[in-house]
């Protein structure tokens, strides 16, 4: 059989035409690969970006005839599509190869790839690593689940790729063979998509398949990699480090990021607030160290890093009250970390709620008992939050985000903090966590004008 005959016998399909699916369409179009596409959202048919690189005659939208996936030999499934979708199961039953965009990327990448995942902090750590590597004079491309889709990064032709990878991307990947990989932490998340935290854990650990080097968190047993004994592991922890490991050392009221006994960076020199962010920088230093980058460049990059929008971002102060946007805090672990990191003298007014994703909000009780917090609850998960946390937890039910900002501003005292860290998805009230954060910022700006 000739190569032309083999090629003509292939039927490739993209399932989902969001940002990831569009990047696959662009890539296959550039490579001259024939493909079809489908999206179960009918409105995608009128989305110029979604249809820009597909053949409309080979696309289907809305209610899809199941026969559309018949005889498909390869299906690239976007992260937003659950793998138990009936169309995917039908295709798999016919022997179709189902995988994700990261597999295509890894086949084409000509430079080492660093993969970063975790329940919380992965976007921040990915961005910090990118800034650190650039400060070392290395051409780096950063993306994946953060910012630009992985396949779009190939055009940059960098010396190193740094990818944030979600559990949804990892669960549909084959063997990635990353140069360096880490699972920062694991806490209950996306339990509306996973039957148990065991399944979620399994998806995260797919990042370690045939990895060359691992960075691991000693504090979280769920992140410990099951890799061959000869795979190098660089360790970090939140406390005092062992020899050649990275850790956080406190001396005379000052916190230092260290490697072994060597003090690398005082946390007072960082532009990021909160102990959880200091640990994010520590993890990034461990990753940079594992890549054998010069420490001077890594430290300078850490000092320059100003943070991502909607991740514990200080928006302003009104009458002595800090307003912080952590709209990206979409699970309980992220919100708990923000509360711990920002705890101080004053009370925290926590704006929480949205789509609960099957989480158990009683897991917030330990941190709520240690810190003075009043909850302002909104959105679809309101009744669940009230039931899980009980009547002993101080809280008010809000009709809108703007109402929560108004009430907290009127009630807070100088030294208090108003924190938007919803521990929930945004889609019941907003189009995205970004819109939620922007609405919060607009409400704070209105307070500043009034003041």
Description of the structure:
Helices cover 33% and strands 20% of the residues. By secondary structure, the protein is α/β, with parallel strands linked by helices. The protein has three domains: 89 residues, NAD(P)-binding Rossmann-like Domain (Rossmann fold, 3-Layer(aba) Sandwich), CATH 3.40.50; 202 residues, Mur-like, catalytic domain (UDP-N-acetylmuramoyl-L-alanine:D-glutamate ligase, 3-Layer(aba) Sandwich), CATH 3.40.1190; 138 residues, Mur ligase, C-terminal domain (Protein-Tyrosine Phosphatase, Chain A, Alpha-Beta Complex), CATH 3.90.190. A six-stranded parallel sheet has the order 7-8-6-9-10-11. The chain has a six-stranded mixed sheet with strand order 15-16-20-17-18-19, sandwiched between helices. α13 links the parallel β17 and β18. The longest helix is centred in the last third of the chain and has 18 residues. It is globular and about 70 Å long. It starts with a helix and ends with a helix. 49% of the residues are buried.
Give a concise summary.
The chain folds into three domains: 11-99, Rossmann fold (3-Layer(aba) Sandwich); 103-304, Mur-like, catalytic domain (UDP-N-acetylmuramoyl-L-alanine:D-glutamate ligase, 3-Layer(aba) Sandwich), CATH 3.40.1190; 313-450, Protein-Tyrosine Phosphatase, Chain A (Alpha-Beta Complex), CATH 3.90.190.20.
Q: Going across the biggest sheet, name each strand in turn.
A: 7-8-6-9-10-11
Strand content: 15-25%
Q: Provide the gyration radius in Å.
A: 23 Å
Low-pLDDT parts are 1-7
**If you average the pLDDT, what whole number results?**
93
* CATH fold group of the largest domain: UDP-N-acetylmuramoyl-L-alanine:D-glutamate ligase
Name of the CATH class of the largest domain: Alpha Beta
Number of strands: 20
């Amino acid at each position: 059989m000739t190569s032309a005959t083999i090629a003509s016998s292939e039927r490739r399909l993209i399932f989902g035409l969001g940002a990831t699916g569009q990047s696959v369409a662009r890539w296959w179009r550039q490579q001259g690969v024939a493909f079809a596409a489908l999206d179960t959202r009918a409105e995608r048919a009128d989305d110029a970006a979604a249809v820009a690189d597909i053949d409309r005659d080979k696309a289907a939208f809305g209610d899809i005839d199941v026969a559309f996936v018949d005889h498909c030999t390869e299906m690239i499934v976007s992260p937003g599509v659950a793998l138990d979708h009936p169309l995917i199961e039908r295709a798999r039953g016919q022997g179709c190869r189902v995988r994700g965009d990261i597999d295509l990327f890894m086949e084409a990448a000509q430079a080492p790839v660093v993969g970063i995942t975790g329940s919380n902090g992965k976007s921040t750590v990915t961005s910090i690593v990118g800034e650190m590597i650039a400060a070392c004079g290395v051409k780096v491309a950063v993306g994946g689940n953060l910012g630009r889709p992985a396949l779009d990064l190939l055009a940059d032709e960098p010396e190193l790729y740094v990818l944030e990878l979600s559990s949804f991307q990892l669960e549909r990947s084959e063997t990635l063979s990353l140069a360096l990989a880490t699972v920062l932490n694991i806490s209950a998340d996306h339990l509306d998509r996973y039957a148990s935290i065991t399944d979620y854990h399994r998806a995260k650990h797919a990042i370690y398949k045939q990895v060359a080097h691992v960075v691991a968190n000693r504090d979280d047993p769920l992140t410990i990699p099951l890799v061959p004994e000869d795979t190098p592991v660089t360790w970090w922890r939140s406390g005092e480090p062992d020899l050649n490991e990275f850790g956080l050392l406190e001396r005379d009221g000052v916190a230092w990021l260290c490697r072994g006994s060597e003090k690398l960076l005082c946390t007072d020199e960082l532009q990021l607030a909160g102990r959880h962010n200091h640990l994010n920088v520590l993890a990034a230093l461990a990753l940079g160290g594992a890549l054998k980058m010069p420490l001077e460049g890594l430290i300078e990059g850490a000092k320059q890093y100003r943070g991502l929008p909607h991740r514990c971002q200080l928006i302003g102060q009104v009458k002595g009250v800090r307003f912080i946007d952590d709209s990206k805090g979409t699970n309980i672990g992220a919100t708990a970390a923000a509360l711990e990191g920002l705890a101080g003298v004053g009370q925290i007014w926590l704006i929480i709620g949205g789509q609960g994703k099957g989480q158990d909000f009683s897991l917030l009780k330990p941190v709520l008992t240690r810190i003075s917090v009043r909850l302002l609850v909104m959105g679809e998960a309101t009744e669940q939050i009230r039931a899980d946390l009980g009547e002993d937890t101080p809280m008010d039910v809000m009709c809108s985000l703007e109402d929560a900002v108004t009430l907290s501003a009127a009630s807070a005292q100088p030294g208090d903090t108003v924190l938007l860290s919803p521990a929930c998805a945004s889609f019941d009230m907003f189009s995205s966590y970004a819109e939620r954060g922007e609405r919060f910022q607009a409400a704070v700006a209105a307070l500043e004008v009034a003041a």
